[in-house]
Write a structure and sequence with these properties.
The complex is a heterodimer of chains A (207) and B (356).
Chain A lengths: L1 H11 L6 H18 L13 H29 L11 E3 L11 E2 L3 H4 L1 E5 L3 E6 L10 E3 L4 E3 L6 E2 L5 E3 L8 E6 L5 E9 L13 E2 L1
Antiparallel strand pairs in A: 1-10, 2-3, 3-4, 4-9, 4-11, 5-6, 6-7, 7-8, 9-10
Helix pairs in contact in A: 1-2
Chain B lengths: L1 H7 L2 H17 L1 H4 L2 H18 L3 H7 L5 H29 L5 H5 L6 H26 L24 H9 L2 H22 L15 H25 L26 H9 L8 H4 L1 H21 L2 H35 L6 E2 L4 E2 L1
Antiparallel strand pairs in B: 1-2
The chains are: A alpha+beta (207), B mainly alpha (356).
Chain lengths: 207, 356
């Protein structure tokens, strides 16, 4: 490198009538000139032969493919949530004596997504998923209704929809006695009022 | 005073009031879109806003980090709508006097780009950046507790740009409010250049030359879109009930909203008989109403109102136009029916998940 620079300096001296043009011409043309005349051939390192070109290209493509695959894997991982809210579908809900007539039991709302309602005849299990777009309604005891905070759907204590945009009543789950006499709620089977399934004896626990 | 504003902000009254104001502004554009009117409205609305900040309920809603942009949105949209209409009205006067429009006088057929536009863009960009940085430093992100599927916040609100849709969901079935109406809205907006081949108003502001187009657009844009966002942001409280801007958000506010379908009104209230078992006979009045709205109204409109437009556009363009117009108007009609009569669905066939 230092050699080349000094050569350029020497060449510059005789032609220095118009300096600006000259430096330009040096930058562009002179290195080619010097190789042909004064200086021996440039170091062979600079020349990239075909074999090393392909091996570098191969490495580049390999790392590019690896990076792409790695990113695809990371994106794929993203589709599987870190936490899944999947409580067991069947659970025991204590004894019928625990339930007060006319009350809505909210103990299992958070853990299983179920309200247990006791009326004078028995107990039924209501789903806590609003039939409009799936928000979780709140039980308003003073107004004796379930009210959804998302679009204002309202349901009676029985689960029948009466206000707001919900198109159908809340769903009920299968309810029965376990062997030990406790209440057993099974969310695998659901009963929809509009299909006439609430008449099914499994949807209702006589007490 | 606060009581009066609370009552006025009740949607049926608010909507009617705004429709009347909008209609008057299109009837007397020189008065409503003048510089003086803007100063009066601007100053009084800013004063109203500042005075209202002393009310704790108003302060709470308006300064909620989620809602701050909507406050800005109201003022910005009012200002820019006025700006466009103001220039349009000025041009109308020039056209009426036989002069060329203001845009033609700057430099006909040319746009000033360098350095004018580029400098303006640079300044706007810098200011916008400053605003965003200031905003993000001053207002805390409205973060909440970790998500819990069993606990929906009360009220649960969508991001502000979806609040118009969330409001529609109250009145329409999910597939209409969430899929059909927004879809038609987007496709309809895309179709405008193909339906509207009137070259007037291209490259310059004018109201008198495009009265119908501008009126319909401003009605749809301001009242059926922006107003719904504003209602959803400021006037919807716990349990998705309506609350006036100065009203305390009482979770136990009781609003009798027992909705009934058209079939129930007709068969049970009027005829005093039970609902027929067969869904077709049950819903026949609703289906008839809808058919009448979408088939007979266009015939009447074409004869009485749009006869010249029909000739101008041709049958294809005209029928698309009238269908889009009827759909646009049907949205507030359904909302009024709900507000005034608690009417849930005109046609309700839950057997097929088909409710209108």
């Amino acid at each position: 490198m230092t050699e080349n620079v000094s050569n350029k300096g020497e060449n510059e001296v005789p032609k220095s009538d118009t300096p600006a043009e000259d430096t330009d011409s040096i930058l562009k043309d002179k290195p080619a000139d010097t190789t042909s005349k004064k200086v021996p051939a440039p170091p062979p390192k600079r020349k990239v032969d075909r074999r090393s070109f392909f091996s570098w290209m191969g490495l580049a493509w390999f790392s590019f493919t690896a990076a792409t695959l790695g990113m695809a894997a990371a994106i794929g991982r993203f589709f599987f949530p870190n936490v899944l809210f999947e409580p067991p579908l069947t659970f025991k809900a204590g004894y019928p004596e625990d339930y007060i007539i006319g009350a809505v039991d909210e103990r299992f709302k958070e853990s299983f997504g179920v309200w247990l309602v006791r009326n004078s005849e028995g107990i039924f299990a209501l789903s806590t998923v609003c039939t409009h777009l799936g928000c979780t309604p709140n039980w308003l005891g003073a107004e004796a209704k379930f009210k959804c905070p998302c679009h204002g759907s309202g349901f009676y204590k029985t689960g029948i929809n009466f206000e707001g945009p919900a198109p159908r009543p809340l769903e009920r789950f299968m309810i029965s006695y376990a062997e030990d006499g406790q209440i057993l709620v099974d969310k695998n089977r659901k009963f929809q009022y509009e299909k006439g399934q609430w008449k099914d004896p499994d949807s209702f626990l006589k007490v | 005073m606060k009581e009066i504003i609370n009552v006025i902000s009740n949607p049926p009254i608010l909507f009617t009031l705004l429709v009347v104001i909008l209609f008057l502004s299109f009837r007397y554009p020189e008065v409503f879109w003048s510089g003086k009117a803007m100063i009066i409205v601007g100053v009084s609305s800013v004063l109203f806003f500042i005075l209202s900040l002393f009310d704790e309920n108003f302060l709470l809603i308006v300064t909620k980090a989620d809602n701050v942009p909507i406050v800005g949105l109201i003022f910005l949209i009012l200002f820019f709508t006025w700006l466009a209409m103001w220039q349009a009205v000025k041009n109308d006067k020039r056209i009426a006097a036989g002069k060329p429009v203001a845009e033609a006088e700057i430099e006909p057929k040319r746009v000033i780009v360098w350095p004018d536009l580029v400098y303006i863009e640079l300044i706007a960009l810098t200011l916008c950046l400053v605003l965003l940085i200031g905003w993000s430093v001053l207002l805390e992100a409205p973060l909440e507790q970790p998500a819990n599927p069993a606990n929906s916040p009360n009220p649960s609100k969508a991001p502000w740009y979806f609040l118009g849709l969330q409001e529609l969901l109250v009145y329409f079935d999910p597939w209409i409010a969430g899929v059909l109406l927004p879809g038609i809205c987007v496709v309809g907006l895309m179709a405008i250049p193909y339906i509207d081949k009137n070259p007037k108003g291209n490259g310059y502001y004018s109201f008198a030359e495009r009265k119908m187009a501008i009126s319909i657009f401003i009605f749809g844009w301001l009242l059926v879109w922006i107003l719904l966002i504003v209602i959803g942001t400021f006037l919807r409280g716990p349990n998705w009930n309506f609350f006036g801007p100065y009203e305390y958000w009482d979770i136990h506010k009781l609003e009798p909203l027992v909705n009934i379908n058209l079939s129930e009104i007709i068969y049970i209230k009027w005829f005093g008989v039970g609902l027929p078992k067969n869904w077709f006979f049950r819903e026949i009045f609703g289906i008839g109403t809808l058919l009448a709205y979408f088939m007979i109204t266009p015939l009447i409109l074409t004869k009485k109102v749009f006869s010249s437009l029909y000739v101008k556009l041709g049958i294809g363009r005209y029928s698309i136009f009238i269908a889009l117009l009827l759909l646009l108007v049907s949205v507030p009609i359904k909302m009024y029916l709900r507000w005034l009569f608690n009417l849930k669905y005109i046609v309700a066939i839950p057997e097929f998940f088909f409710n209108i």
